[in-house]
Design brief:
By secondary structure, the protein is of the alpha+beta class. The chain has eight helices and six strands; from the N terminus they run H-H-E-H-H-E-H-E-H-E-H-E-E-H. The chain folds into two domains: 172 residues, NADH Oxidase (3-Layer(aba) Sandwich), CATH 3.40.109; 33 residues. Helix 2 crosses helix 5. It is globular, with a radius of gyration of 20 Å.
Length: 224
């Protein structure tokens, strides 16, 4: 395992503690010139394999391409948008995530397929973080191109390309990308998407949590 340099960690500011594997995950673009070993790749795929899915359909499929080993790497890299290709070309591993959009049992549409593949990729990403890898998920690729390149049937939907590897220092990137790499991570406030009662009405639990935090701060101040 190649540990990420300390300066590349960007811990988020959270309203409550979250697991370190989740806190350490972020979508880096700077990849070190180091291969991902076969055992590590299999561990990522096993993590995806054991994800939850509707009716246990397991609609996820993956095209795995190793740089300098699999011819699929250059083909998959070529399907990316220019803005993604410029940095993703340094990643040692690309994976195309695909969803089967129909149930195997009856051929009817599976409206949960994309959701389930997203869960599988989240599992994969968490496993990657646990073993010192970083995953950058991309929607900027030509879906029709990869469908033709890999003869993907119509009932399957290419969803994302994952660039995977060990982090490198941001200085290895072009200036504009380096600056983006160093930016502070941002997220919407919980009150913007956690609701109760009516839509867009922030959940009361958020107010209760803030009040409890304030009481704790005041209590600590009184004890000093």
């Amino acid at each position: 395992m190649i540990p990420a340099p300390p300066q590349l960690d960007k811990p988020p500011k959270t309203a409550a503690p979250i697991h370190s594997l989740l806190a350490r995950r972020w979508s880096a673009r700077a990849f070190a010139d180091a291969p991902v070993e076969i055992e590590q790749i299999i561990s990522l795929l096993e993590a995806a394999r054991w994800s939850a899915s509707s009716r246990n359909e397991q609609p996820w499929h993956f095209v795995v391409a190793r740089k300098g080993i699999d011819s699929d790497f250059d083909r998959l890299l070529g399907s990316l948008s220019d803005s993604n290709r410029i940095w993703a070309q340094r990643a040692p591993l690309l994976i195309l995530a695909v969803a089967r959009t129909t149930f195997r049992s009856n051929g009817k549409p599976n409206r949960h397929a994309q959701y389930d593949v997203g869960q599988a990729v989240a599992n994969l990403t968490t496993q990657a973080t646990a073993i010192g890898l970083t995953v950058h998920q991309m929607g900027g690729f030509e879906g029709d191109t990869v469908r033709n390149l890999f003869a993907i049937p119509n009932e399957y939907d290419p969803l994302a390309v994952l660039a995977i590897g060990f982090r490198d220092h941001p200085d290895s990137l072009p200036t504009d990308l380096r600056d983006r790499e160093l930016q502070t991570r941002q997220r919407l406030d919980l009150s913007s998407f956690v609701h109760s009662g009516t839509w867009n009405n922030p959940s009361a639990l958020l107010h209760d949590h803030s009040s409890a935090q304030l009481r704790e701060v005041n209590s600590q101040g009184a004890r000093q």
